[in-house]
Amino acid sequence: MVRFILKAMVSALGLYLASVIVPGIHVSSFGVLIAAAVLLGVVNAIVRPVLVILTLPFTLITMGLFLLVVNAAMLGLVSLILKGFVIDGFWAAILAAIVTGLVSWVATSVIDGPDAKSTGGARFKVRIERRPRD
Fold it and tell me: Whole-angstrom Cα distance, residue 131 to residue 134?
């Protein structure tokens, strides 16, 4: 539960920065911002995995860039459900997805620290041992 609340706070920060930086993103109040962050967490947990699987061919063809469209669609779904959180078009949603993604990435790296295990990409430890010559 604490992890969900922390992720919601990071999402709220990302949505706030997106509303400040990106023209076309409007948040009417702080309560709407918190509600949008929580709802975005729920939508990302339920709807996004299904959409990612359905759009996998496009994601592979575009080498992952189509995931920005999926993230923008999740923001658009939140704006349809929640009054007071408005996105004025496709490009505003794409830019907001970039901003919230960057904020989430930076916050996760700061919170977890440099020694945390990465979920993206494989990390290998290489151990080289010298064998004695016969």
Answer: 9
Instruction: Tell me how far apart the alpha carbons of residues 44 and 11 are, in angstroms, rounded to a whole number.
Output: 11
Is 16 contained in some domain?
yes
Question: How far lies 55's CA from each of 35, 38, 42, 69, 129, in Å?
Answer: 27, 24, 20, 10, 45
pLDDT above 70 for 4: yes
pLDDT at 96 over 70: yes
Spatial distance between the Cα atoms of 119 and 103, rounded to a whole number of angstroms = 17
Whether 123 is in a domain gets the answer no
Which domain range does residue 84 map to? 2-112
pLDDT recorded at residue 120: 53
Instruction: Let me know if residue 80 belongs to a domain.
Output: yes
- Cα separation values, 110 from 10, 104, 113, Å: 11, 10, 5
Q: Are 27 and 36 in contact (CB under 8 A)?
A: yes
Residue 134 lies in a domain: no
